[in-house]
């Protein structure tokens, strides 16, 4: 796609939203070699845009970033970092800098007005505001609690969920246009969620979208699920293999790697949520997984050894194959290595 230096909006469509730590954007160096294999060394390792994020985004999300000046063909690497696991999602965009910015829109929208909160409950609240205006057009609104962005929407209302009970919130909204110009903040809508009174007998909602996240080995299966909601708070998750409870993790954790499994064996897993009062949710969807056969034995990876495309090594009990020549790039942390089934 053609692109120019300056404010640019990057749009994400998220099939399965996750609790998010940040969004980072990298670009290739001006003098990178597009005829050589794309490697870590091809990129400027300082992100040109780093957006901290606390919470779980909706299925549509966007960031507006100032793209640095480049010429010709370049590559942008966008990274979505998950907050409660070591996982991240990557997207690569091929761009071509035409060298001119044309008649760029540099006018920011007006601030949204009359932001207010209603239907405030123990874990939710409804926000509404008056539309901002712009010389071209407003494309979306970003919602902040204090200085932290917690949501975005193209509508003039938004239902906040998953809030903590008996907790103060200070909400503002900013408008964004297609060129990425961001308005000043709106007025603040301050409210405190309701406290939960009496005995808590309400169970959390069942975890959703339980799935295998990453690569299974002959003895391990990595699981991930979407967080449950509760009228007070989720304090933990129970992981089941068939009908057997095999692990309990904290309420802020939505991933677990099952270990000690047998190669080439079928397993089924479910997850349940638990709150502080001991109420247990219904089970999540069932995930059926068969572990792969035990891998062949390959030489251990050595940082001082040079490897060519097709070389196979073992590292941390996982087998890898090199895609091209490499030395000193750790398997699992470098794109040059692919996991062998």
Automatic annotation (TrEMBL):
InterPro entries reported for this sequence: CBM5/12 (IPR003610), CBM_sf_5/12 (IPR036573), Cellulose/chitin-bd_N (IPR004302), FN3_dom (IPR003961), FN3_sf (IPR036116), GlcNAc_Chitin_IntDeg (IPR051024), Ig-like_fold (IPR013783), Ig_E-set (IPR014756)
One Pfam family hit: fn3
Keywords for this protein: Carbohydrate metabolism, Hydrolase, Polysaccharide degradation, Signal
Segments forming domain Fibronectin type-III: 111-196, 206-294
Single GO MF descriptor: carbohydrate binding
An example Gene Ontology biological process: polysaccharide catabolic process
Gene Ontology CC terms: extracellular region
Claim: Signal is one of the keywords in the record: yes
Name of protein: Chitin binding protein
Organism: Paenibacillus pini JCM 16418
């Amino acid at each position: 796609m053609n692109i120019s230096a300056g404010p640019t909006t990057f749009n994400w469509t998220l099939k399965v939203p996750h609790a998010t730590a940040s969004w980072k954007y990298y670009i290739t160096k001006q003098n990178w070699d597009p005829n050589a294999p794309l490697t870590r060394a091809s990129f400027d390792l300082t992100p040109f845009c780093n957006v901290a994020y606390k919470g779980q985004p909706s299925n549509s999300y966007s960031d507006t970033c100032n793209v640095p000046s480049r010429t010709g063909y370049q590559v942008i690497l966008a990274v979505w970092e998950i907050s409660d696991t070591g996982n991240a999602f990557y997207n690569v965009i091929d761009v071509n800098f035409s060298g001119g910015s044309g008649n760029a829109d540099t006018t920011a929208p007006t601030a949204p007005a009359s932001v207010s909160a209603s239907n405030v409950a123990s874990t939710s609240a409804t926000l509404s505001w008056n539309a901002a205006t712009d010389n071209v057009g407003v494309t979306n609104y970003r919602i902040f609690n204090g200085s932290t962005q917690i949501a975005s929407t193209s509508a003039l209302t938004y239902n906040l969920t998953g809030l903590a009970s008996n907790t103060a919130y200070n909400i503002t909204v900013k408008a964004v246009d297609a060129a990425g110009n961001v308005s000043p903040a709106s007025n603040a809508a301050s409210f405190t969620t309701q406290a939960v009174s009496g005995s808590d007998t309400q169970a959390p909602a069942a975890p959703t979208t339980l799935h295998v996240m990453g690569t299974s080995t002959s003895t391990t299966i990595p699981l991930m699920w979407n967080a449950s909601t509760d009228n007070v708070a989720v304090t933990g998750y129970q992981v089941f293999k068939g009908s057997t409870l095999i692990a309990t993790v904290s309420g802020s954790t939505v991933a677990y790697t099952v270990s000690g499994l047998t190669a080439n064996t079928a397993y089924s897993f479910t997850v349940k949520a638990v709150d502080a009062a001991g109420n247990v949710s219904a089970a999540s969807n069932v995930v059926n997984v068969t572990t792969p056969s035990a891998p062949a034995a390959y030489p251990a990876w050595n940082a001082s050894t040079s490897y060519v495309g097709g070389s196979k090594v073992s590292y941390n009990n996982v087998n890898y194959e090199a895609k091209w020549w490499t030395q000193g790039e750790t398997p699992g942390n470098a794109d040059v290595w692919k996991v062998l089934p």
